[in-house]
Design brief:
40% of the residues lie in helices and 23% in strands. By secondary structure, it is α/β, with parallel strands linked by helices. The strands form 4 sheets. A 5-stranded parallel β-sheet has the order 2-1-3-6-7, with helices on both faces. It has a 4-stranded antiparallel β-sheet with strand order 8-9-10-11, with no helix packed on it. A two-stranded antiparallel ribbon has the order 4-5. α1 packs across α5 and α6 packs across α8. The longest helix has 15 residues. The mean pLDDT is 88.
Length: 220
């Protein structure tokens, strides 16, 4: 996923950013609402992590504005506001989840993945493709009882295809999902990742649609 982190606490923000990157996702991190609006007007995000108390206003206002405009991008609130009324306000404004600081980073990972699965229309973390069994929650793949190891980037790439099983995904879209602003991307990066996935999972697991991009196939 490509995630926008809106958090002004530099220590927490750095820890959350590093956790997201270690999971293989791309993240853009801003500390103000005006910067968040600028980023949202420039790039498409799969999920927002939103602090409620920011230097230039309350994050709840941004959330309400996005929902009023019909934006259905998943939002998880990260805040120190722990009153029941605060949680109700956040959820009623359109948040998908609400995490109270301090929180465990591994729990954040689990909640990110759970929200992503719900929006992909498949809340079940267990998926079968051919003779592959994929456990998205545990990030494990087995074939005939044998584990297949993927790198963090390979996992995110596979998850991107699983979330859009019938769509042809362009190279530029895949780059957007895998990399943040400012990261240098080699011209053949996506081709390299796809090639490695095919070697591990079967050549047919990702199909090439000539001139357009790639789509999920079947494992062989």
């Amino acid at each position: 996923m490509r995630i926008l982190l809106i958090e002004d606490d530099t220590i927490l923000g750095a820890a959350v950013r590093d956790q997201i990157v270690s999971d293989g996702h791309s993240v853009d991190w801003v500390t103000r609402l005006d910067a968040a609006r600028e980023y949202l007007g420039t790039a498409a995000y799969d999920l927002l992590l939103l602090d409620l108390m920011l230097p230039d206003g309350r994050g709840i206002g941004l959330l309400r504005d996005r929902r009023a405009k019909g934006d259905v991008t998943p939002v998880i609130i990260l805040t120190a506001l722990d009153q029941l009324s605060d949680r109700i306000e956040g959820l009623n404004a359109g948040a998908d989840d609400y995490m109270i600081k301090p929180f465990d980073l591994s729990e954040l990972t689990a909640r990110l993945n759970a929200v992503a699965r719900r929006y992909a229309g498949n809340p079940n973390p267990l998926i079968r493709i051919g003779d592959l069994q994929i456990d998205l929650a545990a990030r494990s793949i087995t074939r005939a009882g044998k584990n297949i190891a993927l790198t963090a980037r390979e996992w995110v790439l596979l998850e991107t295809f699983l979330q859009r099983p019938r769509q042809v995904l362009s190279k530029s879209l895949l780059e957007e999902r895998l990399y943040s602003f400012g990261e240098e991307i080699e011209s053949n990066t996506i081709e390299v990742h796809v090639s490695r996935l095919r070697k591990k999972l079967g050549h047919a697991v990702i199909e090439t649609v000539r001139g357009l991009g790639y789509r999920l196939g079947i494992a062989s």
